[in-house]
Design brief:
With about 270 residues, the chain is of the alpha/beta class. It is about 40% helix and about 15% strand. It contains eight helices and eight strands; from the N terminus they run E-H-E-H-E-H-E-H-E-H-E-H-H-E-E-H.
Length: about 270
């Protein structure tokens, strides 16, 4: 795995779990790590942990991806401080209990997992030239039924089907970004079933604590760190990875037509198209 000295890495969902584990690992590898999280107390604790690993104070920004205005504020901060961002790890997200609509009018799971990351990446396009975008996806994409024409969630598809659809969007976004933004290496990956705060509102985190096959956050973050540190010549832009290996998503999720439709609908949804 390559060195990250001198590279600026922005990690969303960095206050716990995979995001925090990746931030610690990358900081130890010399990266200038920037943390983004929703919960102030957890974000402060995470910043102290990563700062100790880095040997210097790392910046941390609070941003709630259920509010697209928060994404715009975050972008303003990042643009003011960084002319270049070498890696953007779109790791924030999760599963949302019930059929919730955000203040922006979108289904909450799809907004927090996809639309906010899409907006963040699009607004940081110039800073990311020559860099990388890495999306935390999931094998749960296999149960998704993504409809780009229904990003507002008029149809209630159920908690796990909606989460799977959001993870489809993560994979499709990375694939389409590689075609539309060829100067940015884009990829998505499946971290596995990880012992973390994921799904705490519905008890998934409790099951992960006792499941013998559940991974530690460090193991779950391994492919993320590997995608950030490995020379781009050894990676496939637009690819979906699992355990450091290129994998094949479901046939529907491997559709360039669906990816292009999602991109165009996402642009309109976040006010960029």
């Amino acid at each position: 795995m390559g060195d990250l000295t001198g590279r600026t890495v922005v990690i969303t969902g960095a206050s716990s779990g995979i995001g925090l584990a990746a931030a610690v690992d990358m900081a130890r590898r010399g990266a200038s790590t920037v943390l983004v999280g929703r919960n102030p107390a957890r974000l402060e604790a995470a910043a102290a942990t990563v700062s100790a690993a880095a040997g210097r104070t790392v910046p941390a920004y609070r941003s709630d991806f259920a509010k697209l205005d928060d994404v715009h504020v975050l972008v303003d901060h990042l643009r003011q401080r960084y002319q270049r961002i070498d890696v953007l790890a779109n790791n924030a997200g999760g599963v949302v209990r019930g059929h919730r609509i955000t203040p922006d009018g979108f289904e909450a799971t799809l907004q927090t997992n996809h639309l906010a990351a899409f907006l963040l990446s699009s607004l940081l396009r110039e800073q990311l030239r020559g860099g990388r975008i890495i999306n935390t996806a999931s094998g749960a994409h296999a149960i998704g039924a993504l409809d780009p024409a229904d990003l507002r969630g008029a149809r209630n598809r159920g908690l796990w089907r909606q989460y799977g659809s959001a993870k489809q969007a993560n994979i499709l976004f990375a694939a389409e970004a590689s075609r539309r933004w060829p100067d940015i290496m884009s990829a998505s990956y499946h971290p596995g079933f990880v012992r973390s705060r994921f799904g705490s509102s519905i008890g998934v985190n409790l099951a992960a604590r006792i499941a013998p096959f559940a991974r530690t956050p460090e193991r779950g973050a391994d492919t993320l760190v590997w995608l950030a540190a490995t020379p781009t010549s050894q990676l496939t832009s637009g690819g979906y990875y699992m355990d450091r290996k290129l994998a094949r998503p479901t046939r529907a999720t491997d559709s360039p037509a669906l990816a292009a439709q999602l991109w165009d609908e996402s642009l309109r949804a976040v006010g960029l198209g």
